Amino acid sequence: MPSAVGITLKQAQAAVAAAIEKSQAIGTLMDIAVVDAGGNLTAFAREDGAWQGSIDISQIKARTARYFDMPTGAIGQLSQPGGPLFGIEHSNGGLITFPGGLPIKNAAGEVIGAIGVSGSSVENDHTVAEAGAAAVK
Amino acid sequence: MPSAVGITLKQAQAAVAAAIEKSQAIGTLMDIAVVDAGGNLTAFAREDGAWQGSIDISQIKARTARYFDMPTGAIGQLSQPGGPLFGIEHSNGGLITFPGGLPIKNAAGEVIGAIGVSGSSVENDHTVAEAGAAAVK
Amino acid sequence: MPSAVGITLKQAQAAVAAAIEKSQAIGTLMDIAVVDAGGNLTAFAREDGAWQGSIDISQIKARTARYFDMPTGAIGQLSQPGGPLFGIEHSNGGLITFPGGLPIKNAAGEVIGAIGVSGSSVENDHTVAEAGAAAVK
Amino acid sequence: MPSAVGITLKQAQAAVAAAIEKSQAIGTLMDIAVVDAGGNLTAFAREDGAWQGSIDISQIKARTARYFDMPTGAIGQLSQPGGPLFGIEHSNGGLITFPGGLPIKNAAGEVIGAIGVSGSSVENDHTVAEAGAAAVK
Fold first, then answer.
1. Which of D34, D106, D44, D97 is nearest to D71 (CA)?
2. How far is B61 from chain C (nearest CA, A)?
3. Which residue of A42, A123, B100, C92 has the lowest C-beta tally within 10 Å?
4. Contact residues, chain D, for C47 at CB < 8 Å
5. Is the ipTM of this complex over 0.90?
6. Shortest Cα distance from A43 to chain C (angstroms)?
């Protein structure tokens, strides 16, 4: 029996469903990606008409959040010109360091995956990502 | 006004759900990707413990099926050494030409997207892809 | 039955012809690319002596405009250091976020493709892209 | 005044137009690319509904034909398993070595560019490429 790595598909799909629900509640069209603890894609959904460019960005946000176990926006504050992580976006095949990516934790506080949301303002992206991450217990 | 391109998220999720159901019925663990008529990812799911390497292969299969509007295995029969399409895998950033990718058509027979399945034998991959594609009316 | 995605070749060629006409009127040499609603190349022309480096840039501009359904320059205003989309150029295999890319809409206001122009100042690139997009009804 | 390299846009567009005419005459849907003497894209057109995967293949065929100044199919005969050029497709970022790419020569017999056609059988691709190349004097 092969081993899963952290988040299950059932949990990932619950996160996607909660994110879609929040996206519709605030009137946006989002691309939503969930990666497991290994940083590998587990579930993805693009709302009808959501930006095509956000297919990639949502996945990068999710990976970036797991790569460093912090919100993507927190990394972006450190990667500005003059900041300590300036240019980190060039690593790992390309990172996205503005808000919309969040680690997903289990009840014990362990990081079991991450969610990335893209398709609107970064504030809305972050709000929808929070709703998705909160759906995983 | 944003425009969707072919298959809807609802249809794509129905295809993924039907593919998962078939995968479980035959005792496999699959990665399943659905692209729209533009070849862009619309829905994705990886069953718990399914091969990590199939995350990429399932997506390439789906794109390959849409790129040429035929089953991926049909292309593979033409791309063998000595065949008319030998080496076609070098195009489009890498193609997969063994079975598991199928166009998805609407009731009028138009191609509105494609599904790619990877995680088991190519026969099983094809069987699961068929179940997914058949779920879209 | 193959399906087209948005803009037709006839419309795309009309956009290219109008862009070339404008380019000649203002004394520039341009590369001009048109993508369909799926972000895939539909028509392309390079005026004699236009920059070789703009072959790629014009295509990326067209895709970028369709990826986010807005002018490329509007994205560039958001992606400056300190801006909300700082670093977005690292996604989607590389974006171009200065002016010269525009969505192409049909009479109903739906985005059916995009045009990207490169070869002169970004102001001229934008002017020529506008002429191209306006030629599609 | 910047220099053009071989084929002019006017000649390249004539080649594309002749190729489209032939494609329609034989009932196919083609992607057609023309590169200049430097191997750089000069003109491109995709007939409505033509394979998306052929956007890339037509361009690679045109480049491959210019890279070696011979029909792509001639290279393919040398690159089969056991042949002297086995594996050449791995070079130059990926080559296509089945028919459909042809050098374009001027009246003096000099190679001034190349055409690549993809979208049907390799025999049809070659036929349409020949019609395109013949339109350039």
1. D97
2. 18
3. A123
4. 9
5. yes
6. 19
> Other CB atoms closer than 10 Å to residue B20's CB: what's the count?
19
User: Residue C1's pLDDT is what?
Assistant: 64
User: Reading across the β-sheet that carries B31-36, which strands appear in turn?
Assistant: A101-105, A111-118, A31-36, A41-46, B41-46, B31-36, B111-118, B101-105
Instruction: Give the 3-state secondary structure of residue C59.
Output: helix
Instruction: Report the C-alpha gap between B2 and B7 in whole angstroms.
Output: 15
Residue B1, pLDDT score? 62
**B129 has which bridge partners?**
none
C2 vs D40, D44, D49: nearest CB = D49
User: Quick one: average pLDDT of D126-136?
Assistant: 98
CA–CA dist D73, D75 (Å, integer): 5
- Domain residue spans of chain B: 9-134
Q: What gap in Å lies between CA C97 and CA C85, rounded to an integer?
A: 11
For A22-41, what is each residue's pLDDT tens digit? 999 999 999 999 999 999 99
The listed CATH number (3.30.70.120, 2.30.42.10, 3.30.450.150, 3.40.50.1240) that belongs to domain B9-134: 3.30.450.150
Helix or strand run (H / E) with residue D35: strand D31-36
For residue A5, the model assigns a pLDDT of 87
